[in-house]
Prior knowledge:
22% strand; disordered N terminus; 9 strands; Rossmann fold; alpha/beta; nine-stranded mixed beta sheet
Amino acid sequence: MFACSRVSFLLDFRFLIITKMKIIDKKDILGKIEEFQDLKLELGCGSRKRHEDAICIDVIDYECVDIVGDVYEVLRKIPENIVSAVYSYHFFEHLEDIGAVMEELTRIMKVNGLLIVVAPHFSNPYFYSDYTHKNQFGLYSFSYLSSDSIFARTVPSYNKLLNFNLSKVKLIFKSPRPFYFRWGLKKCFQIIFNINRYMMEFYEENLCYIFPCYEIRYEMIKKGRNKLFLEN
């Protein structure tokens, strides 16, 4: 009986903590967000801000973070059609629901707004060492979530609204410090395998586990109109 009561108390306490979590808006950005002329966001910036002109959002309160909070909750507080660019580096692999984030980005971004996502490639051996990684990424990952005119292989859209055009995908090869020789060698692979679409698709289908790719970069442009693509 005591054990059951204790479990019930812990669950209630955990729920209370979750519901009591608040967004920390260090500079009252959300209160004056419509005043920005060229609003840019950097999602999951961590301890290093890559774009000085962007507003950084992260669940951890690092010094460079402007708004601390759950990304889903923060994005819901941003008005429609107001953001000109969104950047994300090694953040999407941590998300529980990529589709939900893409829906919010569709809502808040301006027409022709730029979305850049960089995430570990699925062949990266370091990807599996991090227990917080929940999603894997390859050449076609955002082809399911945007209109893709780049690759020969087509994928289903699962009847989702595809509100972005996939404009560019790049395979990035490198090694972390102190493996400088490997880094240089892998940069040669990067040049070869990014020569054209055929080489990119040939690499991922046949060579990715022989020459692992470190990360992959996607660039997408927000469409002017919503368009529904039926499943192939």
